[in-house]
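Design job #97: recover the sequence.
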């Protein structure tokens, strides 16, 4: 532990601008201590008499790691007037390289040149920037009683990348799909400081992140806010006080959805085990038990049986072998590839061998060519019965085919302007039906994206939201959902070893052991779903961090969805 703390202190020393490389040893302005839960907290040094403007600036941004008493130490570097208006929660700027103080950018001004790796805004939304992105932050200083103090600076704090995950933690806000059957995660990052419950709830009340906007729903009305800027937690019970107008037009069913959304969102806090909604500190009446209220599914599992192709027929694959699917006519004339099946019911889809026809099979076993085109992506069937693919006939066109063409019409183009000119290699809908993971090459660069699916109140698709890009160290061209907060991505290659990557929506990733000639990965949302892989030699199942070959022979394995 002593070594770990020493390294942390040295990292802070080397992460500051203007530190001399010769002369007597100095003392770090921030000292980390380890709490009982293993997390690090920091105590920053106050300004000393006689500090130069450059030293005041350095001391100020280094003190931004000390969140105690609402950044009390950092405010000591500011004039009294500015200390009352500076907002440290507005933004966190995370840097890798040492910031450099630039003297006299303008008369009375100083600047800090920062190489930024990521930022976190006041809603907790983290954005990872391209390598070697830089910003110049401007400071104004004035003398107060003979000592330099900062009279103007950008809101927010500067955080060294090595300290970021000690000072900030990911928290999952939850919203609903259009039917309120599924809880949809929205990961945010917040500083580890007092008042975290109120911070998390306030962010939830503000609404979903941009890539989920209009794709997910909140039980709370627009503009809902906390009555007080705090959420007391006693003996594990969080009491969340609202203005009465929040519940004025809310049915008992909606109020139950409200409480459930709060419970799910606060579940990431270790000190919260239950939630009570209040108005003027009096508990809100939720009414009698309602049979219409169903607990929202979190990380809902898809069925364990996969679909595959064997001997030019659609088959079920489970365990170590396959069985024929009954009630389906002979489809061998299509030379089926890339099969898919619905998470509910018995609907199927596949591509013809030349990938120019999308073929669907309804619950009655009726086979029909839903649409023709060019280089379709593997179909994905959501729980509402819509079959999704991307057609590359004259560009990338997102296509959705309804389960009932008599009611909802034929296949339709779905708006996704950000995919104009892209080459899409995977398009898979999440189990909650509110999101899609897309593998696409845009402007010559392959990437993995997550975007919300915009639907109307009847669940009819209307558009694909502008996405968020997962930050991965490799350019990967295939992706499937593993859980509601993670995906498996890979780059198929029949001759070289391929190592799939698990990536989570909070920015973490894990590389699996490679498999020679890997062409396909099958992963299913939910707990205890095995991960399968294919190469020209056959089918493998992930066991620990290695691959175990199975005896069964089939291709195109895919879990429902």
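Job complete. Output follows.
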């Amino acid at each position: 532990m002593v070594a770990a703390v020493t390294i942390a202190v040295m990292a802070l020393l080397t992460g500051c601008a203007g530190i001399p490389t010769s002369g007597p040893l100095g003392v770090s302005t921030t000292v980390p201590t380890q709490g009982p839960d293993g997390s690090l907290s920091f105590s920053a040094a106050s300004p000393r008499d006689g500090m130069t403007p450059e030293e005041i600036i350095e001391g100020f941004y280094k003190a931004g790691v000390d969140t105690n008493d609402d950044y009390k130490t950092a405010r000591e570097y500011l004039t009294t007037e500015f200390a009352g208006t500076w907002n440290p929660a507005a933004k966190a700027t995370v840097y890798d390289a040492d910031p450099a103080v630039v003297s006299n950018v303008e008369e009375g001004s100083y600047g800090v040149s920062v190489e930024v790796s990521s930022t976190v805004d006041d809603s907790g939304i983290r954005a990872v920037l391209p390598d070697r992105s830089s910003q110049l932050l401007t400071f104004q200083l004035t003398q107060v009683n003979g000592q330099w103090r900062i009279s103007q600076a950008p809101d927010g704090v500067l955080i060294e990348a090595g300290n970021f995950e000690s000072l900030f933690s990911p928290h999952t806000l939850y919203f609903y799909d259009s039917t309120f059957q599924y809880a949809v995660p929205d990961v945010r990052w917040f500083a580890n400081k007092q008042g975290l419950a109120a911070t998390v709830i306030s962010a939830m009340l503000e609404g979903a992140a941009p890539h989920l906007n209009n794709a997910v729903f909140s039980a709370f009305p627009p503009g809902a806010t906390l009555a007080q800027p705090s959420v007391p937690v006693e003996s594990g019970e969080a009491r969340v006080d609202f203005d009465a107008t929040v519940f004025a037009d809310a049915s008992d069913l909606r109020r139950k959805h409200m409480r459930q959304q709060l419970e799910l969102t606060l579940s990431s806090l270790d000190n919260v085990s239950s939630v009570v909604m209040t108005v003027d500190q009096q508990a809100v009446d939720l009414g009698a038990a309602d049979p219409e209220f169903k607990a929202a599914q979190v990380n809902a599992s898809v069925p364990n049986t996969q679909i595959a192709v064997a001997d030019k027929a659609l088959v079920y694959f489970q365990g170590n072998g396959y069985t024929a699917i009954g009630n389906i006519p002979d489809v061998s004339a299509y030379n089926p590839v890339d099969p898919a099946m619905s998470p509910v019911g018995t609907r199927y889809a596949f591509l013809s061998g030349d990938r120019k026809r999308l073929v669907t099979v309804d619950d009655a076993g009726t086979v029909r060519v839903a649409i023709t085109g060019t280089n379709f992506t593997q179909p994905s069937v959501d729980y509402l019965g819509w079959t999704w693919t991307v057609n590359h006939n004259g560009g990338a066109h997102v296509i959705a085919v309804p389960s009932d063409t008599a009611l909802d019409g034929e296949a339709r183009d779905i708006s996704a302007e950000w995919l104009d000119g892209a080459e899409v290699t995977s398009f898979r809908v999440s189990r909650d039906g509110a999101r899609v993971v897309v593998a696409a090459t845009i402007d010559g660069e392959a990437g993995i994206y997550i975007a919300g699916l915009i639907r109307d109140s009847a669940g009819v698709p209307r558009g694909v939201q502008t996405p968020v890009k997962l930050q991965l160290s490799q350019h990967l061209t295939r992706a499937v959902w593993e859980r509601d907060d993670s995906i498996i991505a890979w780059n198929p290659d029949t001759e070289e070893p391929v190592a799939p990557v698990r990536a989570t929506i909070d920015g973490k990733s894990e590389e699996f052991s490679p498999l020679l000639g890997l062409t396909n990965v099958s992963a299913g949302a939910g707990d205890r779903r095995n991960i399968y892989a294919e190469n020209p030699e056959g089918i493998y199942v992930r066991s620990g961090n290695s691959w175990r070959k199975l005896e069964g022979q089939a291709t195109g394995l895919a879990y429902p969805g």
